[in-house]
């Protein structure tokens, strides 16, 4: 698995500790899913981009693990922890073979080009 970048390097130790200890069980859950699955989609309820990403992966026959953390009015802290940890500002966050490729637009582009997901399609 490719290593993820560290937090903002000029932050104080207090800030780094806060980030490290902000919903650590959520970070562990997502990190374990990334280790155990070729494709992981981290999303939120009622977000049309998350729904579209899952639909496109399903239509292409790509097996994936979907993790959902609340909606627009719930679990914002958990999603903020993910944004801080993975340094990606939006949802969905899509990981392929341990690498964050981006969100829905990037996944759809990869599916259309047939590059990244071809070997992962169900036989």
UniProtKB/TrEMBL annotation:
GO terms for cellular component: mitochondrial matrix. It comes from the Eukaryota. Residues 48-101 form the Glutaredoxin domain. It holds the Pfam family Glutaredoxin. PANTHER family: GLUTAREDOXIN 2, GLUTAREDOXIN-1-RELATED. This is Glutaredoxin domain-containing protein. It comes from Dictyostelium purpureum.
């Amino acid at each position: 698995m490719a290593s993820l970048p560290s937090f903002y390097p000029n932050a104080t130790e207090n800030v780094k500790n806060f980030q490290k200890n902000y919903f650590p069980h959520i970070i562990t859950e997502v990190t374990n899913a990334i280790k155990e699955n070729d494709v992981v989609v981290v999303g939120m309820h009622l977000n049309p981009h998350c729904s579209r990403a899952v639909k496109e992966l399903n239509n292409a026959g790509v097996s994936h693990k979907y993790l959902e953390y609340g909606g627009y009015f719930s679990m914002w802290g958990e999603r903020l922890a993910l944004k801080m940890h993975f340094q990606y500002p939006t949802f969905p966050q899509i990981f392929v073979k341990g690498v964050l490729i981006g969100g829905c637009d990037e996944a759809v582009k990869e599916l259309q080009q047939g590059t990244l997901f071809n070997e992962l399609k169900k036989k």
